[in-house]
Amino acid sequence: MVLPIFESLPATLTWEDDSLRIIDQTRLPRETVIEALTTAFEVWRAIHELRIRGAPAIGVAAAYGLCVSMQASRDLPLDGFRAALIEQAAYLDSARPTAVNLNWSLKRMLRAADRSGASDSASLYRALVEEAMQIHREDQLLCEQIGLHGMPLITAGCGVLTHCNAGALATTGLGTATAPIYMAHQEGIAFRVYADETRPLLQGARLTAYELRQANVDVTLITDGTAASLMARRKVDVVIVGADRVAANGDFANKIGTLSLAIASRHFGVPFYVACPSSTLDLQTPDGSTIVIEERHGDEVTHLGGQQIAPAGIKVLNPAFDVTPHDLVTGYITERGIIAKPFEANLAALFQAEAPAASTAS
Ligand code: MRU
Protein backbone atom coordinates (compact mmCIF):
# COMPACT_ATOMS: atom_id res chain seq x y z
CA MET A 1 0.00 0.00 0.00
CA VAL A 2 1.28 3.50 -0.90
CA LEU A 3 -0.11 6.51 1.01
CA PRO A 4 -1.77 8.74 -1.59
CA ILE A 5 0.51 11.74 -1.03
CA PHE A 6 3.66 9.77 -1.86
CA GLU A 7 4.87 8.74 -5.28
CA SER A 8 6.00 5.27 -4.27
CA LEU A 9 6.66 5.06 -0.52
CA PRO A 10 5.20 1.77 0.80
CA ALA A 11 3.40 1.69 4.15
CA THR A 12 5.76 1.56 7.15
CA LEU A 13 4.20 -1.76 8.11
CA THR A 14 1.30 -3.98 7.10
CA TRP A 15 -0.68 -6.79 8.72
CA GLU A 16 -2.27 -9.15 6.24
CA ASP A 17 -3.29 -12.79 6.67
CA ASP A 18 -1.78 -12.85 10.17
CA SER A 19 1.57 -11.74 8.84
CA LEU A 20 3.57 -8.64 9.87
CA ARG A 21 5.63 -6.98 7.16
CA ILE A 22 7.84 -3.91 7.56
CA ILE A 23 10.04 -1.80 5.32
CA ASP A 24 13.63 -2.27 6.45
CA GLN A 25 14.35 1.40 7.25
CA THR A 26 18.09 0.83 7.63
CA ARG A 27 18.25 0.27 3.86
CA LEU A 28 16.28 3.33 2.78
CA PRO A 29 16.55 5.29 0.58
CA ARG A 30 18.88 3.10 -1.47
CA GLU A 31 16.63 0.03 -1.47
CA THR A 32 13.02 -0.64 -0.53
CA VAL A 33 13.10 -4.05 1.09
CA ILE A 34 9.94 -5.46 2.67
CA GLU A 35 10.66 -7.98 5.39
CA ALA A 36 8.24 -10.45 6.98
CA LEU A 37 8.68 -10.86 10.76
CA THR A 38 7.60 -14.33 11.84
CA THR A 39 8.93 -14.80 15.38
CA ALA A 40 9.16 -12.80 18.61
CA PHE A 41 12.93 -12.65 18.17
CA GLU A 42 12.64 -11.23 14.64
CA VAL A 43 10.26 -8.52 15.87
CA TRP A 44 12.51 -7.74 18.86
CA ARG A 45 15.58 -7.53 16.61
CA ALA A 46 13.83 -5.38 13.98
CA ILE A 47 12.93 -2.85 16.70
CA HIS A 48 16.33 -3.08 18.40
CA GLU A 49 18.21 -2.61 15.13
CA LEU A 50 15.97 0.27 14.00
CA ARG A 51 14.68 -1.55 10.93
CA ILE A 52 11.34 -0.33 12.25
CA ARG A 53 11.76 2.83 14.33
CA GLY A 54 10.06 6.05 15.45
CA ALA A 55 7.98 5.98 18.63
CA PRO A 56 4.45 5.48 17.18
CA ALA A 57 5.60 2.92 14.59
CA ILE A 58 7.41 0.97 17.31
CA GLY A 59 4.16 0.91 19.29
CA VAL A 60 2.11 -0.47 16.39
CA ALA A 61 4.83 -2.97 15.45
CA ALA A 62 4.99 -4.21 19.04
CA ALA A 63 1.21 -4.78 19.16
CA TYR A 64 1.33 -6.89 16.00
CA GLY A 65 4.64 -8.35 17.19
CA LEU A 66 2.88 -9.68 20.27
CA CYS A 67 0.34 -11.37 18.01
CA VAL A 68 3.16 -12.90 15.96
CA SER A 69 4.81 -14.07 19.20
CA MET A 70 1.59 -15.79 20.31
CA GLN A 71 0.84 -17.63 17.09
CA ALA A 72 2.75 -20.71 18.22
CA SER A 73 0.79 -20.78 21.51
CA ARG A 74 -2.73 -20.93 20.06
CA ASP A 75 -3.02 -24.64 20.89
CA LEU A 76 -2.08 -24.17 24.56
CA PRO A 77 -4.71 -24.24 27.31
CA LEU A 78 -5.90 -20.72 28.16
CA ASP A 79 -3.82 -20.46 31.35
CA GLY A 80 -0.67 -21.39 29.46
CA PHE A 81 -1.50 -18.92 26.69
CA ARG A 82 -1.97 -16.10 29.22
CA ALA A 83 1.31 -16.92 30.99
CA ALA A 84 3.17 -16.95 27.66
CA LEU A 85 1.51 -13.67 26.69
CA ILE A 86 2.87 -11.88 29.75
CA GLU A 87 6.33 -13.31 29.10
CA GLN A 88 6.36 -12.33 25.42
CA ALA A 89 5.15 -8.79 26.21
CA ALA A 90 7.99 -8.31 28.71
CA TYR A 91 10.45 -9.64 26.14
CA LEU A 92 9.30 -7.27 23.37
CA ASP A 93 9.26 -4.40 25.85
CA SER A 94 13.02 -4.86 26.33
CA ALA A 95 13.84 -4.10 22.67
CA ARG A 96 14.43 -0.35 23.25
CA PRO A 97 14.04 1.70 26.44
CA THR A 98 13.23 5.31 25.57
CA ALA A 99 10.11 5.48 23.38
CA VAL A 100 7.19 4.99 25.78
CA ASN A 101 4.90 3.91 22.93
CA LEU A 102 6.47 0.45 23.07
CA ASN A 103 5.47 -0.11 26.69
CA TRP A 104 2.17 1.76 26.22
CA SER A 105 1.08 -0.47 23.38
CA LEU A 106 2.11 -3.74 25.08
CA LYS A 107 0.26 -2.75 28.26
CA ARG A 108 -2.78 -1.93 26.20
CA MET A 109 -2.60 -5.37 24.56
CA LEU A 110 -2.41 -7.03 27.99
CA ARG A 111 -5.40 -5.03 29.22
CA ALA A 112 -7.36 -6.11 26.13
CA ALA A 113 -6.50 -9.73 26.96
CA ASP A 114 -7.67 -9.21 30.56
CA ARG A 115 -10.95 -7.69 29.36
CA SER A 116 -11.61 -10.31 26.72
CA GLY A 117 -14.13 -12.94 27.70
CA ALA A 118 -12.39 -15.46 25.42
CA SER A 119 -12.90 -19.05 26.53
CA ASP A 120 -10.01 -20.55 24.56
CA SER A 121 -6.60 -19.53 23.31
CA ALA A 122 -7.58 -19.24 19.64
CA SER A 123 -10.33 -16.73 20.54
CA LEU A 124 -7.98 -14.80 22.80
CA TYR A 125 -5.48 -14.63 19.95
CA ARG A 126 -8.20 -13.16 17.69
CA ALA A 127 -9.03 -10.57 20.38
CA LEU A 128 -5.35 -9.56 20.45
CA VAL A 129 -5.26 -9.15 16.69
CA GLU A 130 -8.39 -6.97 16.89
CA GLU A 131 -6.74 -4.75 19.50
CA ALA A 132 -3.53 -4.44 17.46
CA MET A 133 -5.56 -3.44 14.40
CA GLN A 134 -7.38 -0.87 16.51
CA ILE A 135 -4.05 0.60 17.74
CA HIS A 136 -2.94 0.73 14.09
CA ARG A 137 -6.11 2.53 12.90
CA GLU A 138 -5.91 4.99 15.79
CA ASP A 139 -2.28 5.79 15.01
CA GLN A 140 -3.25 6.87 11.49
CA LEU A 141 -6.10 8.97 12.81
CA LEU A 142 -3.94 10.61 15.49
CA CYS A 143 -1.44 11.71 12.83
CA GLU A 144 -4.22 13.35 10.85
CA GLN A 145 -5.54 15.17 13.91
CA ILE A 146 -2.03 16.36 14.80
CA GLY A 147 -1.72 17.59 11.22
CA LEU A 148 -4.96 19.54 11.39
CA HIS A 149 -4.01 21.21 14.67
CA GLY A 150 -0.44 21.98 13.58
CA MET A 151 -1.16 23.17 10.06
CA PRO A 152 -1.91 26.82 11.03
CA LEU A 153 1.69 27.12 12.28
CA ILE A 154 2.88 26.86 8.66
CA THR A 155 2.26 29.97 6.62
CA ALA A 156 3.13 31.03 3.08
CA GLY A 157 6.84 31.68 2.63
CA CYS A 158 7.88 30.33 6.01
CA GLY A 159 10.83 28.08 6.84
CA VAL A 160 10.16 24.97 8.94
CA LEU A 161 12.99 23.02 10.52
CA THR A 162 12.71 19.42 11.69
CA HIS A 163 15.09 16.91 13.22
CA CYS A 164 15.45 13.14 12.84
CA ASN A 165 12.43 11.45 11.26
CA ALA A 166 9.09 12.06 12.93
CA GLY A 167 7.47 11.40 9.59
CA ALA A 168 5.29 8.86 7.85
CA LEU A 169 8.04 6.29 8.29
CA ALA A 170 8.03 6.83 12.06
CA THR A 171 4.28 6.20 12.25
CA THR A 172 1.69 4.38 10.19
CA GLY A 173 0.11 7.61 8.96
CA LEU A 174 1.27 11.10 8.01
CA GLY A 175 3.85 11.30 10.78
CA THR A 176 3.74 13.63 13.76
CA ALA A 177 6.10 16.55 13.02
CA THR A 178 5.50 16.03 9.30
CA ALA A 179 1.69 15.82 9.45
CA PRO A 180 1.23 19.63 9.55
CA ILE A 181 3.83 19.87 6.76
CA TYR A 182 2.00 17.41 4.50
CA MET A 183 -1.36 19.01 5.19
CA ALA A 184 -0.11 22.55 4.56
CA HIS A 185 1.51 21.32 1.35
CA GLN A 186 -1.74 19.72 0.23
CA GLU A 187 -3.51 23.03 0.91
CA GLY A 188 -1.20 24.62 -1.66
CA ILE A 189 0.77 26.71 0.85
CA ALA A 190 4.30 27.39 -0.45
CA PHE A 191 6.96 27.03 2.25
CA ARG A 192 10.33 25.33 2.68
CA VAL A 193 11.50 22.65 5.06
CA TYR A 194 15.01 22.18 6.41
CA ALA A 195 15.77 18.60 7.46
CA ASP A 196 18.66 18.04 9.87
CA GLU A 197 20.68 15.05 8.67
CA THR A 198 20.71 13.69 12.28
CA ARG A 199 24.00 12.08 13.12
CA PRO A 200 24.92 9.32 13.63
CA LEU A 201 22.25 7.19 11.91
CA LEU A 202 21.09 9.91 9.51
CA GLN A 203 17.34 9.45 9.88
CA GLY A 204 16.90 13.03 8.64
CA ALA A 205 18.95 12.50 5.49
CA ARG A 206 17.87 8.96 4.72
CA LEU A 207 14.23 9.09 5.76
CA THR A 208 12.84 12.62 6.23
CA ALA A 209 14.47 14.10 3.15
CA TYR A 210 13.38 11.02 1.21
CA GLU A 211 9.73 10.98 2.21
CA LEU A 212 9.25 14.77 1.93
CA ARG A 213 10.70 14.64 -1.57
CA GLN A 214 8.41 11.76 -2.45
CA ALA A 215 5.51 14.06 -1.57
CA ASN A 216 7.06 16.94 -3.58
CA VAL A 217 7.58 19.11 -0.51
CA ASP A 218 10.33 21.75 -0.92
CA VAL A 219 12.97 20.23 1.38
CA THR A 220 16.61 21.14 1.92
CA LEU A 221 18.96 18.80 3.74
CA ILE A 222 21.36 20.40 6.24
CA THR A 223 24.01 19.09 8.62
CA ASP A 224 22.98 19.21 12.27
CA GLY A 225 25.49 21.99 12.93
CA THR A 226 23.90 24.25 10.31
CA ALA A 227 20.59 24.72 12.13
CA ALA A 228 21.66 27.52 14.51
CA SER A 229 23.29 29.54 11.75
CA LEU A 230 20.14 29.28 9.64
CA MET A 231 18.19 30.66 12.59
CA ALA A 232 20.71 33.49 12.91
CA ARG A 233 19.99 34.30 9.24
CA ARG A 234 16.23 34.36 9.97
CA LYS A 235 15.58 31.45 7.61
CA VAL A 236 13.68 29.41 10.19
CA ASP A 237 10.26 30.56 11.38
CA VAL A 238 9.23 27.48 13.28
CA VAL A 239 10.82 24.25 14.52
CA ILE A 240 8.66 21.11 14.76
CA VAL A 241 10.12 17.90 16.18
CA GLY A 242 8.69 14.61 17.42
CA ALA A 243 9.07 12.98 20.84
CA ASP A 244 9.80 9.56 22.26
CA ARG A 245 8.52 10.24 25.77
CA VAL A 246 6.93 13.29 27.34
CA ALA A 247 7.07 13.50 31.14
CA ALA A 248 4.23 14.93 33.24
CA ASN A 249 5.92 18.32 33.59
CA GLY A 250 6.48 18.66 29.82
CA ASP A 251 10.17 17.68 29.69
CA PHE A 252 10.60 15.35 26.72
CA ALA A 253 13.05 12.91 25.18
CA ASN A 254 13.73 12.93 21.46
CA LYS A 255 16.58 12.14 19.08
CA ILE A 256 20.00 13.34 20.20
CA GLY A 257 20.52 16.92 19.03
CA THR A 258 16.98 18.05 19.83
CA LEU A 259 18.17 19.81 23.00
CA SER A 260 20.74 21.89 21.06
CA LEU A 261 18.01 22.86 18.60
CA ALA A 262 15.70 23.93 21.42
CA ILE A 263 18.45 26.06 22.99
CA ALA A 264 19.25 27.68 19.63
CA SER A 265 15.53 28.31 19.03
CA ARG A 266 15.22 30.05 22.39
CA HIS A 267 18.30 32.18 21.65
CA PHE A 268 16.99 33.31 18.27
CA GLY A 269 13.33 33.61 19.30
CA VAL A 270 12.13 30.81 17.00
CA PRO A 271 8.96 29.00 18.18
CA PHE A 272 9.77 25.41 19.11
CA TYR A 273 6.94 22.85 18.88
CA VAL A 274 6.78 19.16 19.72
CA ALA A 275 4.26 17.07 17.77
CA CYS A 276 3.16 13.85 19.45
CA PRO A 277 0.10 11.71 20.10
CA SER A 278 -1.16 10.99 23.63
CA SER A 279 0.46 7.52 23.37
CA THR A 280 3.82 9.32 23.78
CA LEU A 281 2.80 10.97 27.07
CA ASP A 282 4.13 9.29 30.17
CA LEU A 283 2.29 10.97 33.00
CA GLN A 284 3.72 8.42 35.46
CA THR A 285 7.18 9.97 34.95
CA PRO A 286 7.21 13.30 36.78
CA ASP A 287 10.06 14.94 34.85
CA GLY A 288 12.80 14.24 32.35
CA SER A 289 15.48 13.33 34.91
CA THR A 290 14.38 9.69 35.15
CA ILE A 291 13.79 9.01 31.45
CA VAL A 292 16.06 6.12 30.45
CA ILE A 293 18.22 7.17 27.51
CA GLU A 294 19.27 4.41 25.14
CA GLU A 295 23.05 4.13 24.70
CA ARG A 296 23.98 2.64 21.35
CA HIS A 297 27.12 1.00 20.04
CA GLY A 298 30.15 3.20 19.37
CA ASP A 299 30.51 1.76 15.86
CA GLU A 300 27.57 3.92 14.81
CA VAL A 301 29.80 6.95 15.43
CA THR A 302 33.19 5.61 14.37
CA HIS A 303 31.91 4.14 11.10
CA LEU A 304 29.97 5.66 8.23
CA GLY A 305 28.58 3.47 5.47
CA GLY A 306 30.81 0.62 6.62
CA GLN A 307 33.97 2.82 6.50
CA GLN A 308 35.94 3.59 9.65
CA ILE A 309 36.11 7.38 10.08
CA ALA A 310 37.70 7.65 13.55
CA PRO A 311 40.87 6.26 15.14
CA ALA A 312 40.58 2.57 16.05
CA GLY A 313 39.86 2.12 19.75
CA ILE A 314 38.73 5.73 20.35
CA LYS A 315 36.36 6.20 23.31
CA VAL A 316 32.84 7.00 22.09
CA LEU A 317 29.66 8.29 23.71
CA ASN A 318 26.56 7.48 21.68
CA PRO A 319 23.32 8.35 23.48
CA ALA A 320 20.44 7.94 21.02
CA PHE A 321 18.26 10.59 22.68
CA ASP A 322 18.45 13.70 24.84
CA VAL A 323 15.99 15.37 27.19
CA THR A 324 14.77 18.90 26.52
CA PRO A 325 13.45 20.83 29.53
CA HIS A 326 9.83 21.95 29.22
CA ASP A 327 10.79 25.58 29.59
CA LEU A 328 12.25 25.54 26.05
CA VAL A 329 9.06 24.19 24.46
CA THR A 330 6.55 26.62 22.95
CA GLY A 331 3.77 24.04 22.69
CA TYR A 332 2.78 20.42 22.18
CA ILE A 333 0.85 19.65 19.02
CA THR A 334 -1.40 16.72 20.01
CA GLU A 335 -4.52 15.10 18.62
CA ARG A 336 -6.55 17.26 21.02
CA GLY A 337 -5.01 20.55 19.97
CA ILE A 338 -1.92 22.61 20.78
CA ILE A 339 -1.08 22.50 24.47
CA ALA A 340 0.53 25.63 25.86
CA LYS A 341 2.23 26.35 29.21
CA PRO A 342 1.84 25.52 32.04
CA PHE A 343 2.37 22.00 30.63
CA GLU A 344 1.99 20.08 33.86
CA ALA A 345 -1.53 21.37 34.45
CA ASN A 346 -2.58 21.45 30.80
CA LEU A 347 -1.29 17.98 29.90
CA ALA A 348 -2.95 16.56 32.99
CA ALA A 349 -6.22 18.34 32.27
CA LEU A 350 -6.43 16.89 28.77
CA PHE A 351 -5.01 13.43 29.29
CA GLN A 352 -4.81 12.44 32.97
CA ALA A 353 -8.16 10.70 32.97
CA GLU A 354 -6.85 8.28 30.34
CA ALA A 355 -3.47 7.50 31.93
CA PRO A 356 -3.05 3.72 31.64
CA ALA A 357 -3.43 1.70 34.81
CA ALA A 358 -0.40 -0.25 36.02
CA SER A 359 -0.09 -3.55 34.18
CA THR A 360 2.17 -6.52 33.89
CA ALA A 361 4.33 -5.46 30.91
CA SER A 362 7.53 -4.50 32.77
O1 MRU B 1 16.02 6.20 17.03
P1 MRU B 1 14.76 6.52 16.29
O2 MRU B 1 14.97 6.66 14.82
O3 MRU B 1 13.63 5.58 16.63
O4 MRU B 1 14.35 7.95 16.85
C1 MRU B 1 13.16 8.54 16.39
C2 MRU B 1 12.89 9.87 17.00
O5 MRU B 1 13.62 10.36 17.81
C3 MRU B 1 11.60 10.52 16.60
O6 MRU B 1 11.73 11.91 16.60
C4 MRU B 1 10.52 10.12 17.61
O7 MRU B 1 10.47 8.74 17.78
C5 MRU B 1 9.19 10.61 17.20
S1 MRU B 1 8.56 9.76 15.79
C6 MRU B 1 7.04 10.37 15.42
Automatic annotation (TrEMBL):
Reaction(s) this enzyme catalyzes, per UniProt: 5-deoxy-alpha-D-ribose 1-phosphate = 5-deoxy-D-ribulose 1-phosphate; 5-(methylsulfanyl)-alpha-D-ribose 1-phosphate = 5-(methylsulfanyl)-D-ribulose 1-phosphate
Catalytic residues of the enzyme: D244 (proton donor)
Keyword Isomerase listed: yes
Pathway per the UniProt entry: Amino-acid biosynthesis; L-methionine biosynthesis via salvage pathway; L-methionine from S-methyl-5-thio-alpha-D-ribose 1-phosphate: step 1/6
Binding residue positions for substrate: R53, G54, A55, R96, Q203, N254, K255
GO MF term set: S-methyl-5-thioribose-1-phosphate isomerase activity
Keyword Amino-acid biosynthesis belongs to the record: yes
GO process annotations (BP): L-methionine salvage from methylthioadenosine
InterPro entries xrefs: IF-2B-related, IF-M1Pi, IF_2B-like_C, Initiation_fac_2B_a/b/d, M1Pi_N, NagB/RpiA_transferase-like
E.C. code: 5.3.1.23
Positions of the record's site feature: Transition state stabilizer: C164
Keywords: Amino-acid biosynthesis, Isomerase, Methionine biosynthesis
Family: Belongs to the EIF-2B alpha/beta/delta subunits family. MtnA subfamily.
Purpose: Catalyzes the interconversion of methylthioribose-1-phosphate (MTR-1-P) into methylthioribulose-1-phosphate (MTRu-1-P). Also catalyzes the interconversion of 5-deoxyribose 1-phosphate and 5-deoxyribulose 1-phosphate. Part of a bifunctional DHAP-shunt salvage pathway for SAM by-products.
HAMAP family recorded: Salvage_MtnA (MF_01678)
This protein's name: Methylthioribose-1-phosphate isomerase
